[in-house]
Amino acid sequence: MQREVAVTGLGWVTSIGCDGDTAFASLRHSRSGIRPVDWFPGAEDSPVKVAGTVPEFDVSSHAWPLWRYPERYTLRRDALRSLPPHGVYALCATLQALEDAGLAEADVSSPRTGLFCASAGSPLLMRRHLSQIDVSRGARGQPLGVVSSISGTLNFNLGAYFKIKGANMGIVSACASSSHAIAYAMEEIRSGRQERMIVVGAEEVNAETLVPFAAMRALSPSGGPDASRPFDRRRDGFVGTGGAVALILEDTALARSRRARVRAFARGWGQASDGHSIAISREDGDGLARAMENALADAGLAPRDIACINAHATSTAVGDLSEARAVARVFAAHPDVPVSSTKALTGHALSMAGALEAALTCLCLESNFVPPQAHLTAPDPGCACLHLPAAPLPLSGEHALSNSSGFGGSNVALVFRRADG
Amino acid sequence: MPMIPPSEAAEKLPGYPDAVLRAYAGYYRDKRPEDLDKVVFGLIAFLLPEAAERSLHELPDSTDLRADLGIDSITIAEVVFIIEDLFDLKIDNDTLMSLQSTGDLKNHLRKELAG
Asked: Which of A277, A318, A123 is nearest to A211 (CA)?
């Protein structure tokens, strides 16, 4: 019989809060984590006016001795030296999640515990290191330049810090990355290869990571805390964010045996690709629709079993419409399922988005809470087929779905079940 | 090229201990070997996981960098990278591997800079 997967720990370093209580209070009261940024001082018309910045932390410098983080974390200097800025977020979120799960060092550094990570690496540090090499004509380069900046930096650093002895790898599928990481972590546990998995998604919130998306015309040029407006007629692009979210997944039998608090069950997942474009969602949402159908089949559920959907919707013109069509197709017989995108409040966390939204989905299941669609004033007519709640709702079932889509047409849907359901 | 001025060193080492930057400024001015030792071993101490119980430049020359101080090869490479930048030196891989003790490191740098 297939093993059941429990979520036993969550860790948060996000624009809407750096602990679970604060993040959930922000969600409950629709408090936006989007704040003004001035990454190009003096520029007349900066392409980025707001971002989901991370409170309590300052890792804006390339130099680790200048990084600031809350005093409740004790981070070793030798660990900081090889981290990228978002690695500080990741380390703190992981420490938080392990504490939430009640795990000791020996539980983590065990051949039965693995680590899957997702991030885009650190363009900030990469640029600096390459610049040093360029200026010196190849003669000088920072020895830790590679491991602190390339896209596997999280699994290198966290793997060493926590002395991981099981599976350890990074997963790259752009904005679907950390949903893929959760999905394959589930598979490790279901297959019995690992009994426990740590999944971490993290990104930096700086010009080097986010402004390149302005060149794609994907970022909102608007200002204000409501610049991210998924499914709204006025939406004009996404607002970037970063931070880190960590989840601890365990074989439910193991979690029960050690009397861990189960926060939710990871019930199933599905993926499918658009086969369409490098960066633009297929208009009819076919790939995401099939990903949701595959997730429901994997979980052994019908559309009517889903009590709410955390949408991927990033506040872009094409993407939100595509997802609306996908949801409308899969849930044609259950059109009243509430749909909301928490990116309205958090911003879009890129590789980390799937982990962030999965964790928020777990909190919603735990608290019997369906978030409203924040910043929605006039729904796009093309999205009006969806039930986009204007106010919070009580959950009317036991299961919730969380969607992610990434460049290249990758789509992942995750299904979670309430722990007491 | 000469060693870089203290103001430039401070820009290259943001957040590093004042004592290291003061020793660097002292060496830049007076070329006293004691100040050079304080720069080098101050850098190493700052990159170690825990604060050292005593100043590293006061340790006996026989102190093994790896076995006694727990410094790994990446940390040595990082210290050397900073030293190369500050003093405009080039330390090749064979030399890097041959530096086993605090005395080896101290004597090699003193000799190079006396150059």
From this structure: A123
For residue A322, give every residue at least 6 positions away whose Cβ sits within 8 Å of its Cβ, in sequence order, or none.
Answer: A281, A282, A283, A284, A285, A288
Q: Classify B6-114 by CATH class.
A: mainly alpha
One domain for residues A230 and A335: no
Helix (H) or strand (E) holding B10: helix B6-12
Q: Does A142 touch chain B (CB under 8 A)?
A: yes
Question: Does residue A269 sit in the same domain as residue A252?
Answer: no
The verdict on a CB contact (< 8 Å) between B14 and A63 is yes
Distance of CA A244 to the CA centre of its chain: 8
Entry field: residues in chain A = 421
* Domain identity same for A170 and A122: yes
pLDDT in tens, B31-48: 999 999 999 999 999 988
**pLDDT for A155-176, tens place per residue?**
999 999 999 999 999 999 999 9
Q: Which domain holds residue A286?
A: 264-418
Answer whether residue A45 shows pLDDT above 90.
Answer: no
- Cross-chain Cβ contact A143/B47 below 8 Å: no
Burial A91-108 (b: 16+ CB within 10 A, else e): bbbbbbbbebbebeeebb
Task: Identify whether residues A31 and A171 lie together within a single domain.
Answer: yes
Q: What is the CATH number of the domain that holds A17?
A: 3.40.47.10
- What is the pTM assigned to this prediction? 0.96
Q: Strand (E) positions, A85-140?
A: 113-118
pLDDT grade for B115, boundaries at 50, 70 and 90: low
Domain end marker among A257, A280, A297: A257
How many domains is chain A partitioned into structurally?
2
Tokens of A384: 């009006």
Q: Are residues A180 and A274 in the same domain?
A: no
Which residue reads 């900081």 in tokens?
A: A80
Task: State the average pLDDT over residues A375-397.
Answer: 96
pLDDT in tens, A361-374: 999 999 999 999 99
Active site residue A175: yes
Residue pair B36/A63 in contact by the 8 Å Cβ criterion: no
Q: What is the pLDDT of residue A44?
A: 80
Same domain, A173 and A34: yes
On whether both A83 and A192 belong to a single domain, the answer is yes
pLDDT digits (tens, 9 = 90+) for A233-286: 999 999 999 999 999 999 999 999 999 999 999 999 999 999 999 989 999 999
Which entry of A180, A348, A375, A387 is annotated as an active-site residue? A348
Measured in degrees and rounded to the nearest 5, phi and psi for residue A267 equal -95, -30
Interchain pair A63, B75: CB under 8 A: no
